[in-house]
Amino acid sequence: MELSVLLEKITKTLDDAKAHDLINIDLNHQSSIADNMLICTGTSNRHVSAIAQRLVDNLYKDGLKQIRVSGEQLGEWVIVDTGTVMVHIMQQEVRERYELDDLYKCMAAGTDAA
Fold it and tell me: What's the whole-model pTM score?
């Protein structure tokens, strides 16, 4: 699936699932882990897990079968990895604690995070 189409499908699914504060960080030339990283917030353990499950189900229906998921049991921070796009779905307090937004924005900009 083309990257732009995949990003559009993921963004729409996250929006439909009422994920908050979605950001997209382009890592294409900065990291080998993914081309893009999306970070969003869910309101509770159940909401975070439900967002992740909806995303996996929708992508699977669209033919994307190689999806790896981590953290869905606890629902504090779930990672959905499609291979080219890594989606972090986090509760607000976890997102604030780990500050991935700032860390990866600095990486993408090529600046020092310190």
Answer: 0.90
- Contact indicator for 35, 82 with CB cutoff of 8 Å: no
CB 24 within 8 A of CB 15: no
Residue 24 backbone class (left: φ over 0; alpha: ψ -120 to 50; beta: rest): beta
Report the helix count and the strand count for the chain, using DSSP H and E.
4, 5
CA distance 65 to 16: 21
Burial 67-82 (b: 16+ CB within 10 A, else e): eebebbeebbbbbbbb
pLDDT in tens, 59-87: 999 999 999 999 999 999 999 999 999 99
Residues β-bridged to residue 90? 41, 77
Strand segments (E) across 1-114 = 20-26, 36-42, 68-70, 77-81, 85-91
